Amino acid sequence: MKRTSMSEKQMGYLLILPAIVIILVIAIWPVMRSFWISLHDIRLNDPTKTEVHNSYGLDMERYVSTLPNLLRYLKKEADSAQGSVKDQLLTLRQQAEHMNAMLRQTGEIASRYQKIDQLLLEFKPVPNELKYVELSNEQIDSIRSTLNTIGTTLNDLGKQKQLSKPEGALGVVQGITASVIEPNYVGFAYYKQFLTDSRMWGALYNTLFFTVVSVAIELVLGLWIAMLINKQFIGRGLVRATVLIPWAIPTVISAMMWKYLYDGQNGMVAHLFEVTGLVSDMGVLLTTKAGAMFSVILADVWKTTPFMALLLFAGLQTIPHSLYEAAQVDGASRTQQFFRITLPMLKSTLLVSLLFRTLDAFRVFDLIYALTGGGPANSTETISILAYKTMFAQMSFGEGSALAVIVFLCVALISIGYIKILGADLLGESGGR
Amino acid sequence: MQKKAGPLFYVFLVLFIFIVMFPFLWILIAALKPPSELFGERAFDFIIQNPSFDNFVRVFTERPFARYLWNSTVVAALTTLYSITIASFAAYAIAWLSFRGKAIILGIVLAVSMFPQIATISPIFMFMQSMGLTNSYLGLIIPYTTFALPLAIWNLTIFFRKIPIDLGEAAKVDGATIWQTMTRVFFPLAMPGVFTTAILVFIAAWNEFLFALTLNTQETMKTVPVGIVMFQGMFTVPWGEISAASIIVTVPLVIMVLIFQRRIISGLTSGAVKE
């Protein structure tokens, strides 16, 4: 039999290494990165703002493809101009060439310039590592002042009707200006902005309202159902399986089902509510603020109460039957038994399931996205939905990430709160062996 | 309170099951209704006058629903396979080998399982985009690790701990290496636990929505949840087709739940309920 020289300890570290590395790379790094992104103005619909830039830089691809245009334009205008205008244009051209030469004094920029030029000629994509180059403050000043002079001079000449194509002047100067990348660090500006943003507070309020109300209802109903099915009866297996079904169905699919049931014209549940007088009109459910919030909570309660009941039911089964018998002998009433035996014995199960339900409810995204989309009038917009909309509808990743970090911080606060209460119960188990 | 149930209890039970199952029942009816009965006067009828399978056929012929099903299956299966493999080793080490820092590792794993997905989406999206991994299976499998791996590690650790320690000691006395003990003695014994965890991970990956929505936007790369939500047009919602598609997805899950009911329950409750 082969023997490894590895000790148990080393083997242990080796076995958990892949999992730890993956968790660090896939979960912890992205969260930290989210925070980093939230300090920057990143917009996916603006080519100069798609990445974090902490210093001035130059988009070489843009620069290489637009600088020749400027030179060509200036030459063309100079050729067709006369007298002092011609001289002026030639001077401008010299200045542009001087600026370019100055940039290319840095060996790196010169060599990259050549490579990119070649790639562009061959219509090949420019790789990312070639594209972006950092600039010193002097270089930036030089580019800025040159472009400024060229811009204003051309503008003046255009106004004096000395240019054959005045509309082209603006284009070429703007082309190069756009290749200069400004640092997009904004610090905590987004956080400050959201602290005074009524929409953010509204979303936070909606999230808290949704979480507190739905979790409270689920807890009470779940406990009640758990105690009811904690009896001997025929068809236990069937009930347990039934209870699992809403849990197993993708949330968005159950949201779509409820959307159909709530529909203002053909929805069965909306119809039933109208017939029983719960709502004045079928349309109320998804088109009014209160109706939409109620609908979202009801759908969530339907989906997760059975799950809550299941967890609590499993907890109830671990309570020794003898405790109740002893209590009965001592003459304790049903209520006393519930408060003195059931609740204390169920404490850790209750807290663990409450913790997970609260976090799930606070992070709610898919249910609301599919059912109401956050509407009407943002009445069901939770903070995750707002973050998603900011990121993917407005393409403002920095801003959206700030909201995502706020969600993260809230979740962390909730967890810390629960773990303080649970404390030893939760980690005591994991600290075993 | 192991009391015998009375007749009132069974009435309650039937009512309870009816409420839980009602949405499915109604969606099944809607899926079988032709458009003329889906809307208008007959919209609230339980009895279908002219039941038809048109909605089911249309889902496959007019929409790439088979493709969605395939995408979801591939992504969920691969996620399950690789996260269970990695988690098995980690869980074995945490449950059985002695080394320092285990409580911290389990704490981190638990904390990661609480991370909101929205807090990781922006860097992951930007990374996938720059690597050209959007609209690929790998682009979904990688971020699915954020919830699959913690779930698997946590559950497997609890399952592994239930295996009597004497077995490991006996193997050690016989001269087996740690690797041999793990693969020949523990993994076969832990198979039920591994299988249970695999079901949970598979269901979680199958149901995932946010990453699938943002990363795979191409029609041919969408997963089932995203595909069904995107059925709705700007002005019309094809309820018949949505119902049919929902039934198609729901039925296999229901069957799975019925078959593996005991395992799923033990997997779900093992984390929350101490025995």
Automatic annotation (TrEMBL), chain A:
<feature type="transmembrane region" description="Helical">
    <location>
        <begin position="282"/>
        <end position="302"/>
    </location>
</feature>
<keyword id="KW-1003">Cell membrane</keyword>
<feature type="transmembrane region" description="Helical">
    <location>
        <begin position="208"/>
        <end position="229"/>
    </location>
</feature>
<dbReference type="InterPro" id="IPR035906">
    <property type="entry name" value="MetI-like_sf"/>
</dbReference>
<feature type="domain" description="ABC transmembrane type-1">
    <location>
        <begin position="204"/>
        <end position="418"/>
    </location>
</feature>
<feature type="transmembrane region" description="Helical">
    <location>
        <begin position="241"/>
        <end position="262"/>
    </location>
</feature>
<dbReference type="Pfam" id="PF00528">
    <property type="entry name" value="BPD_transp_1"/>
</dbReference>
<protein>
    <submittedName>
        <fullName>ABC transporter permease</fullName>
    </submittedName>
</protein>
<keyword id="KW-0472">Membrane</keyword>
<dbReference type="InterPro" id="IPR000515">
    <property type="entry name" value="MetI-like"/>
</dbReference>
<feature type="transmembrane region" description="Helical">
    <location>
        <begin position="12"/>
        <end position="32"/>
    </location>
</feature>
<comment type="similarity">
    <text>Belongs to the binding-protein-dependent transport system permease family.</text>
</comment>
<feature type="transmembrane region" description="Helical">
    <location>
        <begin position="400"/>
        <end position="419"/>
    </location>
</feature>
<keyword id="KW-0812">Transmembrane</keyword>
<keyword id="KW-1133">Transmembrane helix</keyword>
<keyword id="KW-0813">Transport</keyword>
UniProtKB/TrEMBL annotation, chain B:
<protein>
    <submittedName>
        <fullName>Sugar ABC transporter permease</fullName>
    </submittedName>
</protein>
<feature type="transmembrane region" description="Helical">
    <location>
        <begin position="185"/>
        <end position="206"/>
    </location>
</feature>
<keyword id="KW-0472">Membrane</keyword>
<dbReference type="Pfam" id="PF00528">
    <property type="entry name" value="BPD_transp_1"/>
</dbReference>
<comment type="similarity">
    <text>Belongs to the binding-protein-dependent transport system permease family.</text>
</comment>
<keyword id="KW-0813">Transport</keyword>
<keyword id="KW-1003">Cell membrane</keyword>
<dbReference type="InterPro" id="IPR000515">
    <property type="entry name" value="MetI-like"/>
</dbReference>
<dbReference type="InterPro" id="IPR035906">
    <property type="entry name" value="MetI-like_sf"/>
</dbReference>
<feature type="transmembrane region" description="Helical">
    <location>
        <begin position="104"/>
        <end position="125"/>
    </location>
</feature>
<keyword id="KW-1133">Transmembrane helix</keyword>
<feature type="transmembrane region" description="Helical">
    <location>
        <begin position="7"/>
        <end position="32"/>
    </location>
</feature>
<dbReference type="InterPro" id="IPR050901">
    <property type="entry name" value="BP-dep_ABC_trans_perm"/>
</dbReference>
<keyword id="KW-0812">Transmembrane</keyword>
<feature type="transmembrane region" description="Helical">
    <location>
        <begin position="242"/>
        <end position="260"/>
    </location>
</feature>
<feature type="transmembrane region" description="Helical">
    <location>
        <begin position="137"/>
        <end position="160"/>
    </location>
</feature>
<feature type="transmembrane region" description="Helical">
    <location>
        <begin position="74"/>
        <end position="97"/>
    </location>
</feature>
<feature type="domain" description="ABC transmembrane type-1">
    <location>
        <begin position="69"/>
        <end position="260"/>
    </location>
</feature>
